[in-house]
Each structure stands twice: as structure tokens, then as C-alpha cells.
Amino acid sequence: MVVQEHRRRGGAFAVAAAVAGMVVTSACSGAGAAAENHSGGGPADEVRRAADTLTGAGSSKARTSMEMAAGGTRVTIRGEGGYDFARRMGRLRVVLPKDPAGADGHKPITELLTPGALYMKNRGAGVPADKWVRVDTTTLDDGNLVTGGATDPLAAAELLRGAQGVTYVGEEELAGRRVRHFRGTTDIGRAARAAEPHARASLAAAAKGFTQDVVPFDVYLDDEGRVRKVRHRFSFANQGRTVAVTSTTVLFDFGARVVVRLPDERDIYSGKVRA
After folding, report:
1. Taking Cα atoms as reference points, which of 10, 275, 268, 3 lies closest to residue 139?
2. From first to last of its 275 residues, what are the pLDDT tens digits of the chain?
3. DSSP string covering 57-117
4. How many Cβ atoms sit within 10 Å of the Cβ of residue 82?
5. Burial of 8: CB neighbours in 10 Å, binned 0-12, 13-18, 19+
6. Interatomic CA distance for residues 158 and 55, integer angstroms
7. Could you give the CA distance from residue 223 to residue 238 in angstroms, rounded to a whole number?
8. Strand-pair category, 163-174 with 132-136
9. Element at 124 (helix H, strand E)
């Protein structure tokens, strides 16, 4: 697989497809009721505002998981780090699952998330250990919603701008905090048109790359309207099979200091990455 950003599929599904290769070898009683909306408007309006609310929140720590399923096999990629929503930049340490024999097949991957670009270190497949791979996310078939093995937390919220058919499930407790659970679907193309400029091109690419443009979601908002947890269920084609992907992002410790330093140009690998 070539990872040069001028190529249409440069690095597409770089982490997720590698794992997909391994894969290939009732609502609560309150559902449908109008939510108590602290900001005015209905449930859909509050969910669509999630990205703006996160930007206003500044920053947070984050945990991610991406479960991929095909042919009766499931594998999960996990990540942990932080995100600066004001600067629209994040840093995650992504851990790939063990190989079918039970061995750890890859070192954790460090990912830097920025508008329009994904940086990966320890990508493997021929990349020197001290080099980063840079991928232009606006050229990816999925807009980097699954490529890196973790959905960019701000992109996950921007995706909610296309929310429709939103129902209020009810109040729940998440990590000791009261949250409000909403459920619905989002249309990727609609989200792209409504997204902020920094996310628009990547989401527009994603609208063309998935098997289904309509993505079911569950989102949990706190009293301030901040996303505490969001889960999207995607699907894409891999080697002639449809791979179901459940991507979950959990945000906590809002206001935590998050440091993201982009690599120097000389530290970015410009060669080819073997499949």
C-alpha cells in the first residue's frame, strides 16, 4: 500500500484494513420521548451542536475503541490520549490486537490528529522506526473515520451534525456522572455539508467511501451538552466482504492539558509502505 498523500488511496484504511485482514482470515422505556434540553430546541438540535460544545470546552482526555467484525470474527483496536478541541489537534496511542496465534504483532502506534492530516509513528511495514507517516485525510475513502484505527474525536462530533431521527433514551450514569443518552442516525453527506471548514473535506470523502451513508449512533451528553461517549456503527467493503465497524470514543477530564507537537518535515517518511 502506498502512503504518499498525492495518491487517492494513499494510506487508506492503513491501520483498520490491516486488522480487517485478520478479520477476513430494545430501547429503554423513555425512548422516543422529548428530552429535557438545557439549550433549547429538540433532541436532534442538541446532538447537532455537540461539536460546537466540544470546541468551547477546550480540551479533554480520550479513550477510543474500534471493533471490527466479519465472517464471525471480531477484533478490537484501542487507543488512549488527549484532544485539544480549540486547536483541533489530538494525540493517541493506538494498540493493535494480538495476531491469531496470540502474539503481539505490532508495537503501539502513536497518532497525531490534525485537520486534513493524520501522522503515524511505528506504522511498521518498511517505515524506519524514527520516522512518521503523514496521510492526507481528505484523500482517504473514509475521511479517516476508521483509517487510523480510531475515529478522530472532533470528527466523531462533527459527524453528528447530520443527525436525524434522534430519540431521547433516558438518563444514565457513566463513570459516576449523570449523562443523557440519545440515539439516532446520521447521514455522512449531510454532516459534511453542515461541518466546520476544517472537517468538511474529510467528511465529504467519507460520504463516498462507505457501504452505507447512513450511520447509526448512540451519544451520551452531560449537563453542559459535552460529549462524554459516542458510538458510531460503520460498514465498508474489504476483499469482497462487508466489514462492520463499531467506533467508540469516551471523553473525560475536560480542561486537561494536551500537548501535540507536529513532526519536522525531515522526520516524515516519503517512501512506500509495504502492505
Report:
1. 10
2. 333 333 333 333 456 655 555 554 423 333 344 333 444 468 999 999 999 999 999 999 999 999 998 777 888 999 999 999 999 999 999 998 876 555 556 789 999 999 999 999 987 667 888 899 999 998 888 888 988 899 999 999 999 999 999 999 999 999 999 999 999 999 999 999 999 999 999 999 888 878 788 999 999 999 999 999 999 999 877 777 788 899 999 999 999 999 999 999 999 997 665 54
3. H-EEEEEEEEEEEETTEEEEEEEEEEEETTTTEEEEEEEPPPPTTS---SPPEEEEEETTE
4. 21
5. exposed
6. 11
7. 40
8. unpaired
9. none
Contact partners, residue 226, CB within 8 Å, separation at least 6: 50, 53, 54, 57, 251, 254
Cβ atoms within 10 A of the Cβ of 139, count? 21
- Number of Cβ atoms within 10 Å of the Cβ of 85: 24
Q: Residue type for 129, please? A: A
Asked if residues 63 and 250 have their Cβ atoms less than 8 Å apart, the reply is yes
Task: Round the CA-based radius of gyration of the chain to a whole number and report it.
Answer: 18
Write out the three cell numbers for 77.
483496536
- Is residue 172 within 8 A of residue 220, CB to CB? The reply is yes
Is residue 56 within 8 A of residue 196, CB to CB? The reply is no
CA geometry: angle 62, 143, 231, nearest 5 deg: 40
